[in-house]
Amino acid sequence: MSETIQDNMYVELTYQVIDQKSGDVLVGVEFPIGYIQGANDILAPAVSEELAGRSAGDIVEVPVECDKLYGPRDESLVFTDYIDNVPAEYREVGTTIVAENEKGEPRSFIVTRMDDKTLTVDGNNPLSGRQVIFKLEVINVRDATDEEISAGGAIGAEPEIDTANMIPIG
């Protein structure tokens, strides 16, 4: 009998984040991630709730309104400057720059655009303002140890992958 996801169970899964409007895959995780259901907030509450009662092999799709998770998009967090004013190590799209506000609190900005003269950074979460679907595939469900429950995840374990069903590449 297959274990079902409930609090204090160790769960391994893969997921994709799909934009509802375009159908584009925004994020894809193919190597399984592991967590302890109910022991930490690694997943959005709506996603954790949908996973409850599921088993290995189940595919779950959960619509998520990212404004509720990350707040609405704030255009005042988008800055463009002359590229000459930006250190060379930050001159690549996708680079994360951590800056402090006037209160000394850190904020991450991502380089989103660059041309010969300017560079644009964005302090919004990349999913802000989007409606997405989290598509998750449950790979493994088992009882978690007390140590794993305390830590919120597996201790020194590799993901349990069924290699018999994998397709060889190459």
Quote the CATH topology of the largest domain. Answer: Chitinase A, domain 3
- Which structural class should the secondary elements be placed in? mainly beta
Taking the alpha carbons of the first and last residues, their distance comes to 35 Å
pLDDT averaged over residues: 86
Shape: elongated
Q: What multimeric state do the chains show?
A: single chain
What series of H and E elements makes up the topology? Answer: EEHEHEEEEEH
Helix tally equals: 3
CATH class of the largest domain: Alpha Beta
Largest sheet: 4 strands, antiparallel
How many domain units? 2
Strand content: 35-45%
Helicity, as a percent range: 10-25%
- Mind telling me which CATH architecture of the largest domain this is? Roll
User: Mind telling me the C-alpha Rg?
Assistant: 20 Å
Sequence stretches where pLDDT stays below 50 over 5 or more residues:
159-170
List the helices and strands and how they pair.
Elements: E1 9-19, E2 25-36, H1 45-51, E3 59-65, H2 66-70, E4 78-82, E5 96-100, E6 106-114, E7 118-122, E8 131-143, H3 146-151
Antiparallel strand pairs: 1-2, 1-8, 3-8, 4-7, 5-6, 6-7
Q: Can you characterise this structure?
A:
This protein folds into two domains: 97 residues, Chitinase A, domain 3 (Roll), CATH 3.10.50; 49 residues, Thrombin, subunit H, CATH 2.40.10.330. It is elongated. The protein has three helices and eight strands; from the N terminus they run E-E-H-E-H-E-E-E-E-E-H. The chain is mostly beta strands. The protein has a four-stranded antiparallel β-sheet. Strands 4-7-6-5 form a four-stranded antiparallel β-sheet, with no helix packed on it. Helix content is 11%, strand content 39%.
